[in-house]
Amino acid sequence: MTRLQAGSVVDGFVVGPRVHAGAMAELYRVTYDGGRPDPGFPMVMKVPRMGGGEGAENLVGFEVEQQMLQVLEGPHVPRFVAAGDLARLPFLVMEYVEGRTLQSLLDEAAAARQRPAPEAIARWGRAVALAVHSLHQQNAVHQDLKPANVLLRADGRCVLIDFGLSWHAHYPDLLAAEMRPAIGSPAWMAPEQVVGVRGDPRSDLFAIGAMLYELATGELPFGEPVTQGGLRQRLWMDPAPPRALQPACPPWLQEVILHCLEPEAAQRPPSAAHLAFDLAHPEEVDVGTRGQRTTRTPWTQQLRRWIRAAGLQYQPSPQPSERVGEVPIVMAAVPHHETTDAGLYALRQAVKRSLGIRPGARLACVTVVAPGIQDDEAALHRHHGEQLRQWARGLDLHGHQVSFQVLQAEDVAGALLAYARANHVSLMVLGAATHGLALQRWIPTVPARIAAEAPCSVLLVRDAPPLALLGQPAPA
């Protein structure tokens, strides 16, 4: 390809300095020509390499990325500006995102010969998971997540870039039609991608697990295979447990990482929102033998997996947005005062019904207490946490992850709403207020405010209709 010259004009854009030269494309800073005001953010032009030595996948990938950027929305993808004519000079103009790639953080850790703190790994991983969740909600799967394609802004949010290998449920899969069966970057590619299955959102979770593994250990879980046989090993092999390479890796982090790297997609976290929840609440991660291991899986078990993988038929998953909807995070707002046994029972029954029609859903049991005046806040949390566990003992939680959260806040509704937003809750179940009815006209009750402001569906539960109270005069 011909390198663009700084100062030249291309379809109304003034070309600035080149900021990146990769194997697939080059990036140039650009501005509008003729004094036209910029769109409110810096811009970059991406031009694919199409010389004699480049493969056809460069142009196909360019078409895919052009298609994806025009339909994806939100803060986790660069904003689309314009596209060039494929017959003349193909290019994409998009938002230039200020931030650091995850690869630069890995390089920095390698140079310092020191692994990032588990808290930092969890924070970065959660940011990536939330960005991926946003894609999946829009029926898109990235399919090429790796540290170089993850940008972290100064405010901690993540932006995903390079959608040339991506998949969208509503558009033709040009790559599957025209390219090799295994599409992706070998070090981070999920087992189902190796055998040619595209469009499963859990493939992105595998890639996040591979990135977390490298952050925690400094090594890639499966190396960088260059042959089909090397790629296929991940269909049955487990990587070395992170704690075998870095004993300081906490069991909860290893549990999360190896959960993402399960060979079968169905054994991984149900959604990116579930993964983000675990990384935000490490104390709630259910650590089993997977998180405690310090040795590799025995060869006899690897052999059984190899035999099973030889005959395994991978099936496409439902559309990403449907998959997300099938495994929601359900939040039960459990009061600890101003309630009755009948109210707690009705709330438990409503949660039981909600979980019964949502196999694989995660349950977050949350209560809000006023900031305590006592010194021992840990004792306060233990007391109310145990109350939550007692309330949940009547639920059938088989097949459901569950967590218990005690929040301290004066503003009960505000705390519940903030928790629901931060953890991408899909359904909140809470008791409908039967007190303060005389003031409802002027001061909204907690359920009324939540119903009006919640970022999710809300199910209000009554233990008994408060009709008798409606006709009573307000107390003096």
TrEMBL record:
Please indicate if the UniProt record lists Transferase as a keyword.
yes
Show where the Protein kinase domain sits: 13-284
Question: What SMART domains does the annotation carry?
Answer: S_TKc
UniProt-recorded name of the protein:
Protein kinase
UniProt GO molecular function: ATP binding; protein serine/threonine kinase activity
Please indicate which superkingdom the organism of origin belongs to: Bacteria
Taken from the record, one Pfam family name reads: Usp
- Entry keywords, A to Z: Kinase, Transferase
Ranked from the top, the taxonomy reads:
Bacteria, Pseudomonadati, Pseudomonadota, Betaproteobacteria, Burkholderiales
User: What PROSITE patterns does the annotation carry?
Assistant: PROTEIN_KINASE_DOM (PS50011)
